[in-house]
Amino acid sequence: MFRFFLALIIISLCAVTGYFIKTFPAVVALRLPDYTITTNLIIWCILSLIAAWVITLIVRLFVFLWRSPQYFSRSAEVRKRKKAHDYLQNGLAELISGHYSKAEKYFVRGGDLADEIGESSVIYFENAAIAADYLNADERRERYLLNARQHAHSKQHTALTRLNEAEMHIDHGDHDKAIPLLEEIRDQESKNVKVLSLLEQAYADTGDWESGWRILPKLKGYMKEDDYKARQKFYAKGLLKDTPSIESVYELETAWRALPADMRKEQEMVLLYASALAENGHNDAAEHFLNQEIKRSQNLDLIQAYSQMRSGNFKAQLANMQRWEKEHPNDAVFLYAKALIAYKANDYDTAGQAIEESIKRHPSKEAFALWAQILEAKDQPEAALAAYRQSVVSVAVDETLSGDLLPATQDQKAISS
């Protein structure tokens, strides 16, 4: 029905137009040299419109032909851009699926296309480096990283590329390559948390305790309080334990005083510092330090560590033990420590009395071994042999004294042998 009405309307319009053309009185006369063309004004207007439309089409055709190389070039660029994007998407999909070889090929092809059309190819070559890394293709990985770095046109792109490269080096333990890159980025972006975190990790992995300790406070606001304290203690242990290059008491004291005050009060850190002093041959300083800490806390573990000092004035140490004895009456561990110092001070009577009291309260292998040493020093070989036999008898774990808190001394090695 609609088509019928549409045809009827068109026929009506044509009839009306024809009627106006026939009855319209105005005409147009086109005079030529040999003849004259006369036509109705309405027909002339219609023909003029058709001619103008045709001329416009011809002009547009010529313009299109003139610009066709540019159009075709732009179209080719669009196709290449789309193809490069498809390569990136396919590469990421293969990378997630674990098909690293296919992913690498997609990324490289996409990167080459991006370079061809003048776009940034950084993301392509960075992902190609990741894929090559999974394939353990170190040479290709380094080449892709170099390509990414060379094609990073902006400052931001350059820093990001170097950051990704440094992170990859850290994952592989190549800290010699990672640290210079990270330090260079840090000079440009001193507050970049990712850079600081990676740099701190690299310093920790390489044992550069001082550098790591200096950078740690900058990460405090981004770590949980417990995690931050644990990391502080980690570096503190490194500063105090890793001491081959420390030659003076001053250097150790400087490292110790750099620690937070609450950390310096912890028993573990106190013992670690005393051990560091002793290991570096500063026995007098270690003894003095432990003496001061014991006066402050009367901690039994510190007293046991004090008894294990390798050298010093043993008579003065014994006098200190006798002053502290009232704080630890009848304690087996304290009596053992007192006996050990008395033995090293050649006061065998005091040593024998103390070790016997210790054994009565808490028999242990260490106590029997020390008793044997004391009896042997007192020229009582038969009693010493009996004590030695007791020292090798199996004793339950919960009946042994706590382990060495400082490196074993020559006296302890002799006792335990």
Provide structural commentary:
The protein is mostly helical. 74% of the residues lie in helices and 2% in strands. Helix 5 runs antiparallel to helix 6 and helix 14 packs antiparallel against helix 15. The longest helix has 57 residues. It is rod-shaped, with a radius of gyration of 46 Å.
Q: How much helix is in the residues?
A: over 70%
Indicate the radius of gyration in whole angstroms.
Answer: 46 Å
Between the first and last Cα atoms, what is the distance in angstroms?
Answer: 117 Å
State the total count of DSSP E strands.
2
Summarize the structure.
By secondary structure, the protein is mostly helical.
List the helices and strands and how they pair.
Layout lengths: L1 H22 L3 E5 L4 E5 H57 L2 H17 L5 H13 L3 H13 L4 H17 L3 H14 L4 H14 L2 H7 L9 H17 L7 H9 L3 H4 L2 H13 L3 H15 L2 H8 L6 H11 L7 H13 L3 H14 L3 H13 L3 H12 L17 H7 L1
Antiparallel strand pairs: 1-2
Question: Which characteristics define this entry?
Answer:
417 residues; mainly alpha; two-stranded antiparallel ribbon
